[in-house]
Structure formats: C-alpha cells, structure tokens
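B., you asked whether I could sanity-check this one before it goes into the benchmark set. Here's the sequence:
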Amino acid sequence: MRYLPHTDDDVAQMLATIGANSLEDLFASIPADCLRKDDLDLPGAMTEWELNKHMERLASEMAVCPEYLVFMGAGSYDHYIPEAVKQLLARSEFLTSYTPYQPEVSQGTLQAIYEYQTLTTRLLGLDVANASMYDGASGLAEALLMAVRVTRRKKIYISSLCHPLYRQVVRTYFEPTGYDIVELPYLKNGRTDLSQVTDLDACAGIAIQSPNFFGCIEDIESLAKKVHADPKTMLVVSFTEPLAYGLLKSPGSLGADIACGEGQSLGIPRSFGGPGLGMFAAKKAYLRNMPGRLVGQTKDLDGRRGFVLTLSTREQHIRREKATSNICSNQGLCATAAAMYMAALGGTGIRELACLNRDKSAYLKGALAHAGFDTPFSAPTFNEFVVRFPGDSPETYGRLISKKIVAGLPLVSYYPELKNHYLLCVTETMDREDMDLLVKEVTS
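And here's what the prediction gave me:
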C-alpha cells in the first residue's frame, strides 16, 4: 500500500521548481557520516487480516481486565464509566474539536472546559482551575515551578511518597535550572517525614501526595500549619486518585495552595497508560502565575452569556520572559470526559463511589491480615495499601500471574528497602469473590 499521493511526475515538477535534481539533493546539508546508507530492516508487508491477527497476538501478551484480575493501581485505576459519558463524548462536536486557537468561534468547546474548571474547583476545594495540564506528572512539575515564580525562592522539598514517575518528571523539569530539590523520607506509619524541613524562609514550596504512593492518607491540615509558619512557603498537594476527595476533605479546605494530579479516574479508560488528564487548581491570589490556560465567562454586546480564554500566558501568546509555562495545549477531550463523569455522578454519587472503593479495599486488607500477611503502614488508606508477602514472593507473584491474577505492583524497584512488598488496589470493579480468590491463591 502506498502512503504518498505524489506520482513521479509530481515529484519531478516540484524538484524542478526548487532547482534540485533529485530527492537526495534535499539532504545535501547533512554530513555523509550521519546518513543511513542501507535500507531499514523492516518485516514484510501483511494483509489486513494478517495484521489484525498480529495485533491480537501482541495484545494477548498484556495482562488486562477483564481476562485477568488486576489488583494494581499505582496512578492508573480501573473504574466503571457510565454509558452516558461514552455516548456523549463520541459526539462529533466534542470528539473532533481541537484546542480553541480562535476562542470566539469555539463557544461549545469553551463552555465544556468552563464546566470542567468549575467542577474541578469544587472537587479540590480551591478558587480557580485551569483548562487542564498534560497529565498528573507535568501538573506537579508545573506547580513547583509556579511556587518558585511566586516566592522567588529556589529550593523545594518533595515527599519521597509522591509517585516515583512524577518525581522523575520533576527532576527532568528542574535539571537545567540549578534549583535545589530535596526529597523527604517517610515515617514508619507510611506518611511523609517533615523533620528535615528546617529552613522554611528559603523554601519555595513543599510537595506531598495524598493518598500517597503507598495508598496512605497524609495529614494535610497539620502539614499546612507547619508549612505556613512561613507565610510565603507554598504547600502543593498532588494526587493520583481524585475520587478519594469524594470522601476525604479537599486539599484546598485543609490549607493547600495548589492541588494537582491525574484525572484518569474520572471517566477516562486506562488505555495501556494514556492519555491522561492533568488537573490543576490554586488559590485565586496566584491566578496570574498559573500555567496553561483558563476559560472565563462573560457577556457579549447583546448581554448574552459567552466564554473566552481569560488567561493564556504561554509563549505563543506573550513574550517568553513573561510566560508562565510552555504548555501549548490542554487535554480538551479528556477534560470534557471528566466534566461529563463528574456531572453524571454528582456530589452524592462521587461520595458513594468513594465509600465503595474504601470499603472494598478495607475488606481485602482485612482478609489478608487475617490470613497472616503483614500490612506494614498504619496510616489510614483509601483504595490502595501495601502488603508484605512472606517467603519467595517473586515466585508467588509469577504463579498468580499464570492463574491470571496480578497481585499488585512490586515496590522493590522504586524502594529497594521494601523487598517482598506489593502495592494492591481495589476499586468498585472488584467483586468479593475476586478478592476471596486472591487471598485463597496467595495463601495456597
């Protein structure tokens, strides 16, 4: 199958127009030792049906629901998505619309984003939310850069219980800046240890995650009091499971200056790791330092309600030195999905769903503890928790996978001191029979 529409005559005419003799002349400026001289080692072409079978074989190598029982969250969660969300999101007005570069003619898209921002501020308990970031990791990095801009300080603390991949993204963002990044250890109860924070007057911000990577709920209110002992230092609360705030008090109500994280749980399928949705909210005082864009409501000359890009402080719109980020778009479709999901469930539905997640997770944690397994961290949890498997746990883990059960995420690659420790997750998609089967198999 040919993918280029140009005939040999078309190519010859274009070359003649620009004064080149051959296609190779277009690459004459590239040094010869940088050019590939042999053909790419690609497999032969397949028919449509052969390609479908090949993709099915590749897909079968992945352990995914519903064929497997996957007790794994760690930043990506399996939740039921209402059919109404799927059907509405598939409408062409949403599915095919692009980021509003001409906002005055994108009223439907802007209104959808405005509704998303409104629901986000209610969920996170803060004054303003932007039109979304790329994902939770970029949201945390941008939040810490924002803290640096606001305070004009160059030192940040970040909890070692923030998602390991989020911390890696933060280090990548900050590597060229020369700013000082200090990781805080964790306590025996599974919460962040702030005892090493002794110089708040030099600190731009402190970032924690709640529920954290161990699934433990941080004491945000106490942390906020300590952080705000210096009025300039900012508290950034990150998250990977926004549904937790259907049950827990919101970060803003507990004293967070910025709340940011991953919104995949809100009506977005896991899709083998993406796309996601970076949620970002802050206090109104920091509005003009927020990254990305923000949609506002106004009235036109005839008094009719309309929507505009109130804030779009990015490099394409203003001078680079005044830009708050180089975020050049937003996850428009994913943000719309999250708005539909939150609106479909409502406050009562989100709370009931959060309670269901908490209760099911508590059931499995209790069943494993009753079976003799150690749950090393005593801090309260939401729908994830850490358990230590005795004996040769990698062998047990592999045996369970052969029975189509994924018993959580091994933590040793992220925390070498936690050998034989696994992070398990339970959402509303797991039945009691599924959890009982896990306990039975892991103890056999």
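One thing to flag: Residues 332-370 form the longest helix (39 residues). Otherwise nothing jumped out at me.
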